[in-house]
Amino acid sequence: MSAPASGAAVRLRDLEIAYGGEPVAQVDLSIEPGEIVVLLGPSGCGKSTLLRALSGLLRPSAGSAEVDGVAVGSGAEQCAMMFQEDALLPWRTARRNVEFALKLRGAPRGERRGEARELLAQVGLQDFADHLPSALSGGMRQRVQLARTLATRPRVLLMDEPFGALDAQTRTEMQRLLISVWQRYRTTVLFVTHDVDEALLLADRIVLLTARPARTQRIVTITEPRAPGARFEPEFARLRYEILAGLGESADSSADLATIIEN
Ligand SMILES: Nc1ncnc2c1ncn2[C@@H]1O[C@H](COP(=O)(O)OP(=O)(O)OP(=O)(O)O)[C@@H](O)[C@H]1O
Ligand SMILES: [Mg+2]
């Protein structure tokens, strides 16, 4: 008999992933439907490994992972992954990249063109549908990737430092875009970043991970997630300091707190 559905969108039960017998991640975590959870942790701690396990690319060495109550690895993968590096097909236009994802989803041929146009409009690229990736900026290519990822209608969107390679301004635009797209689709998101501000701007909850093997060190719940102007609130500065301290940066210097608040 299968276990009763837990109601959670993602359920990691003492999930352990090992490389060559060495555990890389050991995590117990539930994510509610429609929640944005951000993973923050030292480089090499196992964040990408966790995402790969959720997308079914890696088998756990212990424990289990479920998406909507269905075990990951059972064939019906329900997560879509979006990476920092651009994974578009270079010989297809933006629209045809999205149409390709629609085809993989099984969308009827006659509906693909219209749906691709709508998805591209969602990410602000209605005027660039017929451009090849090489004729788009880095930020635009990430927008196409987002449209293409949404085209598969994933239950969970796995985002591995998706904006890490973008300049600060484009990154801010992409964060706003992600929030507006999320407000429309309410897809559950598991997002990895190294940027504490990005985590604070996007998350309902931030999971701080320890160094390898990644274990939950602390979970920070944001009381008013994605509130406009939040970055100017003292609460934002306080959480930012706490998180940096949790990650082992600026932990001992009380001067840093003043600097963070002033900035
Ligand atoms: N295929 C592999 N075989 C063996 N070890 C691996 C493999 N992939 C990753 N590792 C190791 O597992 C650990 C976790 O890697 P992972 O890529 O998950 O880290 P990460 O938290 O995503 O790091 P970063 O923040 O730098 O992206 C690292 O020590 C890495 O060297
Ligand atoms: Mg990584």
Brief digest:
The protein has 8 helices and 10 strands.
Characterise this structure:
A 6-stranded mixed beta sheet has the order 6-7-8-3-9-10, with helices on both faces. The protein is α/β, with parallel strands linked by helices. The longest helix is centred in the last third of the chain and has 18 residues, at 168-185. 36% of the residues lie in helices and 22% in strands. The chain has 8 helices and 10 strands. It has 2 domains: 1-78 and 155-216, Rossmann fold; 89-153, no CATH class. The model is unreliable at 1-5 and 250-263 (pLDDT under 50). Residues 47-48, 160 line the site of magnesium ion (MG).
Write the layout of secondary structure elements.
Elements: E1 10-19, E2 22-31, E3 36-40, H1 47-54, E4 62-67, E5 70-71, E6 79-83, H2 94-105, H3 109-122, H4 138-151, E7 156-160, H5 168-185, E8 188-192, H6 196-202, E9 205-209, E10 216-221, H7 234-246, H8 254-262
Parallel strand pairs: 3-8, 3-9, 6-7, 7-8
Antiparallel strand pairs: 1-2, 1-4, 4-5, 9-10
Bound molecules: adenosine-5'-triphosphate and magnesium ion.
- What about the largest sheet? 6 strands, mixed
Distance between the termini: 56 Å
Shape: globular
Number of DSSP strands?
A: 10
Mean pLDDT over all positions: 89
Q: Structural class per helix/strand content?
A: alpha/beta
Domain count, please report it: 2
Spatial sequence of strands, sheet with the most strands: 6-7-8-3-9-10
